[in-house]
Design brief:
This protein is 22% helix and 41% strand. The protein is built from eight helices and 28 strands. The longest helix is centred in the first third of the chain and has 20 residues, at 34-53. The relative contact order is 0.07. It binds zinc ion.
Protein backbone atom coordinates (compact mmCIF):
# COMPACT_ATOMS: atom_id res chain seq x y z
CA UNK A 1 0.00 0.00 0.00
CA UNK A 2 0.91 3.63 -0.29
CA UNK A 3 3.44 5.24 2.02
CA UNK A 4 4.72 8.66 2.78
CA UNK A 5 8.22 9.18 4.12
CA UNK A 6 8.99 12.46 5.67
CA UNK A 7 12.71 13.03 5.85
CA UNK A 8 13.07 15.58 8.60
CA UNK A 9 14.52 18.99 8.11
CA UNK A 10 17.79 17.12 8.69
CA UNK A 11 20.81 17.83 10.71
CA UNK A 12 21.35 21.54 10.95
CA UNK A 13 24.60 21.07 12.79
CA UNK A 14 26.03 18.96 9.99
CA UNK A 15 25.05 21.55 7.42
CA UNK A 16 26.63 24.30 9.49
CA UNK A 17 29.97 22.43 9.68
CA UNK A 18 29.90 21.85 5.96
CA UNK A 19 29.32 25.54 5.34
CA UNK A 20 32.15 26.41 7.69
CA UNK A 21 34.56 24.09 5.87
CA UNK A 22 33.52 25.52 2.60
CA UNK A 23 33.99 29.10 3.77
CA UNK A 24 37.35 28.28 5.23
CA UNK A 25 38.50 26.90 1.91
CA UNK A 26 37.12 29.83 -0.04
CA UNK A 27 38.63 32.46 2.19
CA UNK A 28 41.74 30.46 2.84
CA UNK A 29 41.28 30.79 6.55
CA UNK A 30 42.99 28.37 8.83
CA UNK A 31 40.96 26.83 11.63
CA UNK A 32 42.99 28.82 14.11
CA UNK A 33 41.81 32.09 12.51
CA UNK A 34 38.45 31.76 14.17
CA UNK A 35 38.38 35.46 14.92
CA UNK A 36 37.97 36.29 11.21
CA UNK A 37 35.43 33.55 10.74
CA UNK A 38 33.33 34.90 13.57
CA UNK A 39 33.27 38.35 11.99
CA UNK A 40 32.43 36.84 8.67
CA UNK A 41 29.55 34.82 10.09
CA UNK A 42 28.20 37.87 11.93
CA UNK A 43 28.31 39.84 8.68
CA UNK A 44 26.60 37.04 6.76
CA UNK A 45 23.84 36.65 9.35
CA UNK A 46 23.28 40.43 9.43
CA UNK A 47 23.01 40.41 5.65
CA UNK A 48 20.38 37.63 5.72
CA UNK A 49 18.46 39.42 8.47
CA UNK A 50 18.51 42.63 6.44
CA UNK A 51 17.14 40.76 3.42
CA UNK A 52 14.31 39.31 5.51
CA UNK A 53 13.59 42.66 7.14
CA UNK A 54 13.59 44.32 3.73
CA UNK A 55 10.60 42.09 3.10
CA UNK A 56 11.73 40.44 -0.11
CA UNK A 57 12.73 37.14 1.40
CA UNK A 58 11.13 34.62 3.68
CA UNK A 59 12.33 31.57 5.56
CA UNK A 60 10.46 28.37 4.83
CA UNK A 61 10.65 24.90 3.34
CA UNK A 62 11.16 23.54 -0.13
CA UNK A 63 8.94 20.50 -0.61
CA UNK A 64 9.95 17.62 -2.85
CA UNK A 65 7.74 14.68 -3.75
CA UNK A 66 9.61 11.68 -5.08
CA UNK A 67 12.57 14.03 -5.60
CA UNK A 68 10.54 16.48 -7.69
CA UNK A 69 10.29 19.99 -6.28
CA UNK A 70 6.62 20.97 -5.94
CA UNK A 71 6.91 24.32 -4.17
CA UNK A 72 7.87 26.41 -1.16
CA UNK A 73 5.84 26.83 2.01
CA UNK A 74 6.35 28.75 5.25
CA UNK A 75 4.39 26.24 7.31
CA UNK A 76 5.00 22.56 6.70
CA UNK A 77 2.36 21.01 9.00
CA UNK A 78 -0.62 22.04 6.85
CA UNK A 79 1.02 20.76 3.68
CA UNK A 80 1.98 17.55 5.39
CA UNK A 81 -1.67 16.95 6.32
CA UNK A 82 -2.82 17.70 2.79
CA UNK A 83 -0.34 15.31 1.24
CA UNK A 84 -1.58 12.65 3.68
CA UNK A 85 -5.16 13.35 2.53
CA UNK A 86 -4.15 13.20 -1.11
CA UNK A 87 -2.48 9.84 -0.54
CA UNK A 88 -5.65 8.56 1.11
CA UNK A 89 -7.82 9.94 -1.71
CA UNK A 90 -5.61 8.35 -4.36
CA UNK A 91 -5.45 4.96 -2.69
CA UNK A 92 -9.17 4.81 -1.87
CA UNK A 93 -10.05 5.42 -5.50
CA UNK A 94 -12.25 2.64 -6.83
CA UNK A 95 -10.40 -0.11 -8.60
CA UNK A 96 -6.96 1.18 -7.71
CA UNK A 97 -4.46 -1.63 -7.47
CA UNK A 98 -1.27 0.34 -7.81
CA UNK A 99 1.03 1.27 -4.99
CA UNK A 100 1.10 5.01 -4.52
CA UNK A 101 4.45 6.14 -3.19
CA UNK A 102 4.67 9.76 -2.20
CA UNK A 103 8.02 10.46 -0.62
CA UNK A 104 7.86 13.98 0.74
CA UNK A 105 10.95 15.81 1.95
CA UNK A 106 11.22 19.28 3.41
CA UNK A 107 14.45 21.32 3.33
CA UNK A 108 14.75 24.72 4.95
CA UNK A 109 15.25 27.60 2.51
CA UNK A 110 15.39 31.34 2.31
CA UNK A 111 13.65 32.36 -0.87
CA UNK A 112 12.03 35.32 -2.55
CA UNK A 113 8.51 36.04 -1.31
CA UNK A 114 6.83 35.36 -4.61
CA UNK A 115 8.28 31.85 -4.83
CA UNK A 116 6.17 30.75 -1.86
CA UNK A 117 2.83 29.11 -2.62
CA UNK A 118 -0.12 31.34 -1.76
CA UNK A 119 -2.13 28.39 -0.48
CA UNK A 120 -1.47 24.67 0.08
CA UNK A 121 -3.81 23.71 -2.82
CA UNK A 122 -1.13 24.94 -5.22
CA UNK A 123 1.26 22.34 -3.81
CA UNK A 124 -1.36 19.59 -4.20
CA UNK A 125 -2.01 20.63 -7.80
CA UNK A 126 1.71 20.57 -8.47
CA UNK A 127 1.91 17.08 -7.00
CA UNK A 128 -0.96 15.92 -9.21
CA UNK A 129 0.61 17.53 -12.25
CA UNK A 130 4.12 16.16 -11.69
CA UNK A 131 3.21 12.59 -10.81
CA UNK A 132 1.20 10.43 -13.18
CA UNK A 133 -1.42 8.19 -11.58
CA UNK A 134 -3.50 5.82 -13.64
CA UNK A 135 -6.64 4.18 -12.38
CA UNK A 136 -9.02 1.51 -13.49
CA UNK A 137 -11.91 3.62 -14.76
CA UNK A 138 -14.28 4.02 -17.69
CA UNK A 139 -13.11 6.03 -20.68
CA UNK A 140 -15.64 7.88 -22.83
CA UNK A 141 -14.66 7.90 -26.51
CA UNK A 142 -16.36 10.19 -29.03
CA UNK A 143 -15.78 9.18 -32.66
CA UNK A 144 -12.93 6.94 -31.47
CA UNK A 145 -11.15 9.80 -29.67
CA UNK A 146 -10.69 9.80 -25.89
CA UNK A 147 -12.86 12.51 -24.30
CA UNK A 148 -12.64 11.89 -20.54
CA UNK A 149 -12.72 9.22 -17.89
CA UNK A 150 -15.35 8.44 -15.28
CA UNK A 151 -15.27 6.50 -12.05
CA UNK A 152 -18.08 4.14 -13.10
CA UNK A 153 -20.00 3.10 -16.17
CA UNK A 154 -23.22 4.29 -14.53
CA UNK A 155 -21.82 7.77 -14.07
CA UNK A 156 -20.67 7.85 -17.70
CA UNK A 157 -24.15 6.77 -18.87
CA UNK A 158 -25.81 9.36 -16.62
CA UNK A 159 -23.52 12.09 -17.94
CA UNK A 160 -24.30 11.31 -21.56
CA UNK A 161 -28.02 11.12 -20.75
CA UNK A 162 -27.93 14.49 -18.92
CA UNK A 163 -26.14 16.04 -21.92
CA UNK A 164 -28.76 14.58 -24.29
CA UNK A 165 -31.60 15.89 -22.08
CA UNK A 166 -30.10 19.40 -22.18
CA UNK A 167 -30.37 19.35 -25.95
CA UNK A 168 -33.85 17.86 -26.07
CA UNK A 169 -36.39 20.70 -26.27
CA UNK A 170 -39.96 20.38 -25.01
CA UNK A 171 -42.62 18.94 -27.24
CA UNK A 172 -43.91 15.64 -28.49
CA UNK A 173 -40.65 13.85 -29.30
CA UNK A 174 -40.56 11.93 -32.57
CA UNK A 175 -36.89 10.96 -32.49
CA UNK A 176 -33.62 11.65 -30.70
CA UNK A 177 -30.44 10.79 -32.55
CA UNK A 178 -26.91 10.99 -31.13
CA UNK A 179 -25.01 11.86 -34.29
CA UNK A 180 -21.58 10.74 -33.12
CA UNK A 181 -20.33 7.38 -32.00
CA UNK A 182 -20.07 7.44 -28.21
CA UNK A 183 -18.40 4.48 -26.52
CA UNK A 184 -17.67 3.72 -22.90
CA UNK A 185 -14.74 1.37 -22.35
CA UNK A 186 -13.19 0.10 -19.13
CA UNK A 187 -9.50 1.03 -19.07
CA UNK A 188 -6.73 2.73 -17.08
CA UNK A 189 -7.23 6.49 -17.09
CA UNK A 190 -4.91 9.26 -15.97
CA UNK A 191 -6.13 10.51 -12.58
CA UNK A 192 -6.51 14.11 -13.73
CA UNK A 193 -8.71 13.06 -16.67
CA UNK A 194 -11.26 11.29 -14.45
CA UNK A 195 -14.06 13.83 -14.22
CA UNK A 196 -17.33 14.34 -12.40
CA UNK A 197 -20.67 14.70 -14.19
CA UNK A 198 -20.59 18.50 -14.63
CA UNK A 199 -17.02 18.45 -15.93
CA UNK A 200 -17.91 15.65 -18.34
CA UNK A 201 -20.91 17.62 -19.68
CA UNK A 202 -18.64 20.62 -20.25
CA UNK A 203 -16.30 18.51 -22.35
CA UNK A 204 -19.27 17.14 -24.37
CA UNK A 205 -20.45 20.73 -24.92
CA UNK A 206 -17.04 21.49 -26.40
CA UNK A 207 -15.50 23.50 -23.57
CA UNK A 208 -11.92 22.36 -23.15
CA UNK A 209 -9.74 23.34 -20.23
CA UNK A 210 -7.71 25.83 -22.23
CA UNK A 211 -10.49 28.12 -23.37
CA UNK A 212 -9.52 31.72 -23.78
CA UNK A 213 -11.23 33.84 -21.12
CA UNK A 214 -11.78 37.58 -21.37
CA UNK A 215 -12.12 39.77 -18.28
CA UNK A 216 -14.93 42.32 -18.67
CA UNK A 217 -13.70 45.92 -18.39
CA UNK A 218 -15.56 49.04 -17.25
CA UNK A 219 -17.88 50.19 -20.04
CA UNK A 220 -17.79 46.93 -22.03
CA UNK A 221 -20.90 45.65 -23.77
CA UNK A 222 -21.55 42.16 -25.13
CA UNK A 223 -21.93 43.68 -28.57
CA UNK A 224 -18.57 45.47 -28.36
CA UNK A 225 -16.75 42.39 -27.07
CA UNK A 226 -18.37 40.40 -29.91
CA UNK A 227 -17.15 42.86 -32.57
CA UNK A 228 -13.57 42.64 -31.29
CA UNK A 229 -13.57 38.86 -31.16
CA UNK A 230 -15.61 38.06 -34.25
CA UNK A 231 -18.48 36.42 -32.40
CA UNK A 232 -22.15 37.45 -32.17
CA UNK A 233 -23.59 38.59 -28.86
CA UNK A 234 -26.15 35.79 -29.14
CA UNK A 235 -23.33 33.24 -29.31
CA UNK A 236 -21.58 34.97 -26.39
CA UNK A 237 -24.76 34.60 -24.34
CA UNK A 238 -25.09 30.97 -25.38
CA UNK A 239 -21.53 29.81 -24.68
CA UNK A 240 -21.38 31.74 -21.40
CA UNK A 241 -24.86 30.55 -20.43
CA UNK A 242 -25.95 34.15 -19.77
CA UNK A 243 -29.63 34.84 -19.21
CA UNK A 244 -29.44 38.61 -19.80
CA UNK A 245 -27.10 40.91 -21.70
CA UNK A 246 -25.95 42.50 -18.45
CA UNK A 247 -22.23 42.01 -17.77
CA UNK A 248 -20.17 43.43 -14.92
CA UNK A 249 -16.51 44.51 -14.82
CA UNK A 250 -14.29 41.65 -13.66
CA UNK A 251 -16.61 38.96 -15.03
CA UNK A 252 -14.83 36.27 -17.08
CA UNK A 253 -16.28 35.42 -20.46
CA UNK A 254 -15.48 32.76 -23.03
CA UNK A 255 -14.91 34.58 -26.26
CA UNK A 256 -14.22 31.71 -28.62
CA UNK A 257 -17.06 29.85 -30.18
CA UNK A 258 -17.36 26.24 -29.21
CA UNK A 259 -18.20 23.25 -31.34
CA UNK A 260 -20.00 20.65 -29.29
CA UNK A 261 -18.18 17.34 -29.20
CA UNK A 262 -21.44 15.44 -29.61
CA UNK A 263 -24.43 16.51 -31.70
CA UNK A 264 -27.94 15.62 -30.59
CA UNK A 265 -30.52 15.77 -33.34
CA UNK A 266 -34.11 15.95 -32.11
CA UNK A 267 -37.25 15.85 -34.24
CA UNK A 268 -40.39 16.89 -32.38
CA UNK A 269 -43.94 17.96 -32.94
CA UNK A 270 -45.14 21.25 -31.46
CA UNK A 271 -48.28 23.37 -31.54
CA UNK A 272 -48.22 27.09 -31.00
CA UNK A 273 -50.19 30.25 -31.64
CA UNK A 274 -49.01 32.73 -34.23
CA UNK A 275 -50.29 36.29 -34.32
CA UNK A 276 -50.65 38.36 -37.47
CA UNK A 277 -50.36 42.13 -37.22
CA UNK A 278 -53.19 44.32 -38.54
CA UNK A 279 -52.99 47.09 -41.13
CA UNK A 280 -54.08 50.67 -40.62
CA UNK A 281 -56.12 52.34 -43.34
CA UNK A 282 -56.61 56.11 -43.54
CA UNK A 283 -59.77 57.49 -45.16
CA UNK A 284 -59.73 61.18 -46.10
CA UNK A 285 -63.00 62.84 -45.16
CA UNK A 286 -63.98 66.32 -46.35
CA UNK A 287 -66.77 66.58 -43.77
CA UNK A 288 -64.19 66.57 -40.97
CA UNK A 289 -62.17 69.68 -40.22
CA UNK A 290 -58.44 69.52 -40.97
CA UNK A 291 -56.46 68.30 -37.91
CA UNK A 292 -59.35 66.14 -36.68
CA UNK A 293 -59.01 62.32 -36.87
CA UNK A 294 -61.67 59.80 -35.98
CA UNK A 295 -61.21 56.03 -35.40
CA UNK A 296 -63.88 54.26 -37.45
CA UNK A 297 -62.80 50.70 -36.64
CA UNK A 298 -60.34 49.44 -34.02
CA UNK A 299 -57.76 47.03 -35.45
CA UNK A 300 -57.06 43.63 -33.90
CA UNK A 301 -54.41 40.96 -34.52
CA UNK A 302 -55.20 37.76 -36.33
CA UNK A 303 -54.59 34.45 -34.54
CA UNK A 304 -53.56 31.07 -35.97
CA UNK A 305 -52.94 27.73 -34.27
CA UNK A 306 -50.03 25.98 -35.92
CA UNK A 307 -48.86 22.41 -35.73
CA UNK A 308 -45.31 21.81 -36.95
CA UNK A 309 -42.51 19.27 -37.00
CA UNK A 310 -39.30 20.94 -35.88
CA UNK A 311 -35.76 19.58 -36.16
CA UNK A 312 -33.04 20.87 -33.85
CA UNK A 313 -29.36 20.02 -33.52
CA UNK A 314 -28.09 20.91 -30.06
CA UNK A 315 -31.09 23.21 -29.61
CA UNK A 316 -30.44 25.10 -32.86
CA UNK A 317 -33.41 24.81 -35.17
CA UNK A 318 -32.41 23.42 -38.55
CA UNK A 319 -35.81 22.65 -40.09
CA UNK A 320 -39.51 23.43 -39.57
CA UNK A 321 -42.32 21.82 -41.47
CA UNK A 322 -45.82 23.21 -40.94
CA UNK A 323 -48.26 20.29 -40.69
CA UNK A 324 -51.48 22.25 -40.18
CA UNK A 325 -52.75 25.78 -39.65
CA UNK A 326 -56.05 26.58 -37.97
CA UNK A 327 -57.24 30.15 -38.25
CA UNK A 328 -58.74 31.30 -34.99
CA UNK A 329 -59.34 34.83 -36.19
CA UNK A 330 -58.39 36.98 -39.18
CA UNK A 331 -56.70 40.30 -38.54
CA UNK A 332 -59.09 43.27 -38.48
CA UNK A 333 -58.02 46.51 -40.15
CA UNK A 334 -57.63 49.66 -38.13
CA UNK A 335 -59.57 52.38 -39.96
CA UNK A 336 -59.05 56.07 -39.26
CA UNK A 337 -60.91 58.98 -40.86
CA UNK A 338 -58.65 61.97 -41.52
CA UNK A 339 -60.33 65.40 -41.82
CA UNK A 340 -59.54 67.53 -44.89
CA UNK A 341 -62.12 70.32 -44.57
CA UNK A 342 -60.37 73.70 -44.22
CA UNK A 343 -61.06 75.54 -40.99
CA UNK A 344 -63.55 78.47 -41.34
CA UNK A 345 -61.86 81.85 -41.65
CA UNK A 346 -63.71 83.02 -38.59
CA UNK A 347 -62.13 80.32 -36.44
CA UNK A 348 -59.51 81.53 -34.00
CA UNK A 349 -55.94 80.85 -35.13
CA UNK A 350 -54.62 81.13 -31.57
CA UNK A 351 -52.33 84.05 -32.49
CA UNK A 352 -53.24 87.74 -32.24
CA UNK A 353 -52.36 90.44 -34.77
CA UNK A 354 -51.95 94.17 -34.19
CA UNK A 355 -55.53 95.54 -34.54
CA UNK A 356 -54.52 98.73 -36.44
CA UNK A 357 -51.96 99.69 -39.07
CA UNK A 358 -49.72 102.69 -38.38
CA UNK A 359 -50.12 104.83 -35.25
CA UNK A 360 -48.03 104.58 -32.10
CA UNK A 361 -48.40 103.35 -28.51
CA UNK A 362 -49.47 106.38 -26.51
CA UNK A 363 -50.03 104.53 -23.24
CA UNK A 364 -48.67 101.09 -22.24
CA UNK A 365 -50.35 98.37 -20.21
CA UNK A 366 -50.04 98.35 -16.41
CA UNK A 367 -49.60 100.94 -13.60
CA UNK A 368 -49.66 104.59 -14.54
CA UNK A 369 -50.38 107.90 -12.72
CA UNK A 370 -54.13 107.59 -13.26
CA UNK A 371 -54.46 104.07 -11.83
CA UNK A 372 -54.01 100.70 -13.55
CA UNK A 373 -54.24 100.60 -17.36
CA UNK A 374 -56.03 97.42 -18.39
CA UNK A 375 -55.03 97.61 -22.07
CA UNK A 376 -52.77 99.38 -24.52
CA UNK A 377 -53.54 102.72 -26.27
CA UNK A 378 -52.66 103.27 -29.92
CA UNK A 379 -52.86 106.92 -31.08
CA UNK A 380 -53.73 107.34 -34.77
CA UNK A 381 -55.92 109.45 -36.97
CA UNK A 382 -59.65 109.65 -36.57
CA UNK A 383 -61.58 107.16 -38.74
CA UNK A 384 -58.68 104.69 -39.28
CA UNK A 385 -59.96 101.08 -39.58
CA UNK A 386 -59.76 98.69 -36.57
CA UNK A 387 -59.21 95.00 -37.39
CA UNK A 388 -60.24 91.91 -35.41
CA UNK A 389 -57.00 90.67 -33.73
CA UNK A 390 -58.10 87.04 -34.36
CA UNK A 391 -61.17 85.15 -35.60
CA UNK A 392 -64.12 84.82 -33.25
CA UNK A 393 -67.67 85.87 -32.40
CA UNK A 394 -68.65 89.43 -31.53
CA UNK A 395 -70.26 89.25 -28.09
CA UNK A 396 -70.76 92.95 -27.54
CA UNK A 397 -71.08 95.91 -29.98
CA UNK A 398 -72.42 99.26 -28.67
CA UNK A 399 -72.01 101.94 -26.00
CA UNK A 400 -69.80 100.93 -23.08
CA UNK A 401 -69.84 103.97 -20.76
CA UNK A 402 -66.23 105.15 -20.22
CA UNK A 403 -65.17 102.85 -23.11
CA UNK A 404 -67.40 104.80 -25.48
CA UNK A 405 -68.40 102.78 -28.53
CA UNK A 406 -66.76 99.42 -28.20
CA UNK A 407 -66.55 95.88 -29.60
CA UNK A 408 -65.85 92.66 -27.63
CA UNK A 409 -64.91 89.44 -29.44
CA UNK A 410 -64.83 85.92 -27.95
CA UNK A 411 -62.00 83.81 -29.50
CA UNK A 412 -62.67 80.61 -27.56
CA UNK A 413 -60.40 78.92 -24.97
CA UNK A 414 -61.23 81.76 -22.55
CA UNK A 415 -59.70 84.51 -24.74
CA UNK A 416 -61.51 87.81 -25.41
CA UNK A 417 -60.40 91.07 -27.03
CA UNK A 418 -61.93 94.52 -26.55
CA UNK A 419 -61.69 97.61 -28.79
CA UNK A 420 -62.83 100.95 -27.25
CA UNK A 421 -63.41 104.70 -27.99
CA UNK A 422 -64.52 103.90 -31.59
CA UNK A 423 -66.10 106.53 -33.77
CA UNK A 424 -68.21 103.98 -35.65
CA UNK A 425 -68.87 100.20 -35.41
CA UNK A 426 -68.85 97.92 -38.49
CA UNK A 427 -70.27 94.66 -36.98
CA UNK A 428 -73.10 93.64 -34.70
CA UNK A 429 -73.21 91.37 -31.68
CA UNK A 430 -73.37 87.72 -32.77
CA UNK A 431 -71.39 88.27 -35.99
CA UNK A 432 -68.63 85.77 -36.70
CA UNK A 433 -65.53 87.69 -37.74
CA UNK A 434 -62.31 86.62 -39.42
CA UNK A 435 -58.84 87.65 -38.27
CA UNK A 436 -58.00 91.03 -39.90
CA UNK A 437 -61.64 91.88 -40.73
CA UNK A 438 -62.60 95.55 -40.21
CA UNK A 439 -64.86 95.73 -37.15
CA UNK A 440 -64.88 99.47 -36.28
CA UNK A 441 -63.15 102.87 -36.82
CA UNK A 442 -60.91 104.91 -34.55
CA UNK A 443 -62.60 107.68 -32.59
CA UNK A 444 -62.53 109.46 -29.23
CA UNK A 445 -65.86 108.46 -27.66
CA UNK A 446 -66.27 107.78 -23.92
CA UNK A 447 -63.48 108.70 -21.49
CA UNK A 448 -60.98 109.91 -24.09
CA UNK A 449 -58.94 113.06 -24.75
CA UNK A 450 -58.11 112.41 -28.45
CA UNK A 451 -58.52 109.85 -31.24
CA UNK A 452 -57.03 106.51 -30.14
CA UNK A 453 -57.80 102.80 -29.83
CA UNK A 454 -57.86 101.28 -26.35
CA UNK A 455 -57.15 97.56 -26.93
CA UNK A 456 -57.48 94.80 -24.30
CA UNK A 457 -56.77 91.06 -24.28
CA UNK A 458 -58.42 89.05 -21.49
CA UNK A 459 -58.07 85.43 -20.53
CA UNK A 460 -60.85 84.02 -18.34
CA UNK A 461 -61.57 87.60 -17.26
CA UNK A 462 -57.97 88.58 -16.36
CA UNK A 463 -56.20 91.36 -18.25
CA UNK A 464 -53.13 90.38 -20.24
CA UNK A 465 -50.46 92.76 -21.59
CA UNK A 466 -51.29 92.99 -25.34
CA UNK A 467 -47.68 94.01 -26.10
CA UNK A 468 -46.68 90.39 -25.36
CA UNK A 469 -49.10 89.03 -27.99
CA UNK A 470 -49.16 91.41 -30.93
ZN1 LIG B 1 -56.73 103.09 -22.79
Amino acid sequence: MAEIENTSSSDKHLRFSKTKDFLNKMLNIRKSDTQYLKYYMIALCSFIIILIIAGNFKIGYAISINNVNVGFVTEKNETYAMIEDLKKELSEYQGNKENIILNASYSPVIALNHNFSKNPDEIINNVKASVDFYYDAYAVYVDNTFAFGMESKNLADETIQAFTDMYTPEGEIISIEVQNSVEIKPEKVLYTRILNKDEGIKILKGYGNNDELYTVQEGDTLWGIGIHNDITSDDLMLINELETETIVPGQKLRITNVEPLVNIKVIRNITYTEYQPYETEYIYDSSLTKGTNKVVQNGSKGEKNINATVTTINNHETDREIISETIVSEPVKNIIKVGTKPKPKTAATGRFMRPISGGYVSSAFGSRSRGYHTGIDYALSYGSPIYAADGGTVTSAGWGGGYGYMIKINHGNGYETLYAHCSKLAVKSGTKVAKGQVIAYVGSTGNSTGPHLHFEIRKNGSYLNPAKYV
